[in-house]
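Sample intake sheet
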Amino acid sequence: MAVLKDLLTKIEYECVCGTLDKEVTDIVYDSRNVSVGSMFVCIPGAVVDGHKFAAAAVSAGAGALLVEKEMELPENTGVTVIRVEDTHYAMAFVSAAFYGYPAEEMKIIGITGTKGKTTTTYLVKSILEQAGRKVGLIGTIEIIIGDTHIHADHTTPESVLIQKYFRQMADAGCDTVVMEVSSQGLMLHRTQGFIFDFGIFTNLEPDHIGKGEHKDFEDYLHCKGLLFQQCRVGIVNRDDEHWEAVTSGHTCTLETYGIDTEADLRARNIAFLKDGGNLGMGFEVTGLMNFPVQIATPGKFSVYNALTAIAICRHFGVEEEAIKRALMQAKVKGRIEPVKVSDTFTLMIDYAHNAMALKSLLTTLRAYEPHRLVCLFGCGGNRAKSRRYEMGEVSGNLADLTIITSDNPRNEEPQAIIDDIKMGIGKTQGRYVEICDRKEAIAYAINHGQPGDIIVLAGKGHEDYQEICGVKYPMDERVLIAEILKERQKG
């Protein structure tokens, strides 16, 4: 609990009615979660305006309202109404105060960019823990607090949740937090109320543009750049053509990393490594640090991810040997994740679920000169059909064999989705088979694996469910693979 007036010290506001000398028991932005004595924040969302639920929140016992619009409420409710210019922005500062400014008790690392955020957060966590630090993580897949893993609904949660997780992390003994910072999170002020010790930019490509997201690429770029007005040290990929635009107006100290340019930290003499079905990369770190590195994931983008993590962890004084050990051991669920099924061919799981990501993945794996490159994927239902045509065409052009299967059909017929994918493959000379049941499709891929093959299961990645007609049924590809191998042993 906290006194209301103490929560407002870092924002400009008008007290429309009521007293500031009252206890606030919680901060909520969903009226269904209101409890007696809580502050209800009226958020004007893209679909629903929280101001419409203010009266219901008061009836449920809210002691204070945080609003940005004029509104009428029943008289003699005893509620305190605080008006601000932007409730999203104000909620971040109020939440930080409510939880006792936990970010000030830890080092906070924020990573933004179109690709690489998820993998890099896990690499940083792995390296810093090798060096003896205790690291909390907030990202697309999950929130990690000690041994507790919480499923993530958004890449960057709402500000009140961020501050709640920060408090739990600090109380659990974490000294560092590494988190993914989405452009949406920056645009909606979810990361206000504290300063990042380190802000990192990986890369920028057209994405998240459209209704409910960013109006155009310029807006997307601008929102990414907001991180560098909220951090002490900025670390940016100098190879990305947008790095100068993203850091325009920065208020932090800047340093750079890269492969193709004269960055402060560089990767040189890059090599593709392949051994007994295992794929990896080797390179030399030069510039601010100098030592050789090997990583157990394939592709040039894996070099970028590792180099990003090294650039961050350098500031924590991590020794070279600890960095090298951690990079070889780190695995990220569903991001070019190797699953051992054979000594003669390679099987990987990846989240690539659009044409751009699939093209990048298959092009990367082509560099290892496989005997065959086999791509298994499906597409989600109730989504744009164009994605199906595009992914089919990409796989038809780049894979030696495509295995078309089901993903999350949602409210569509799986076969109808498969037929759309086949239309895309039909534009190519690519070979394919169609097996609707995903487990049967994976079994086919494994049972027909040939020496030197690289097989990639694309689209599901870290997901552990299959959504059919509004119901999420348990389905983890790692579990399916284990079941298939066990069934093979039984003959």
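Comment: The chain has a mean pLDDT of 94. The chain has three domains: 2-98, 102-329, 337-489.
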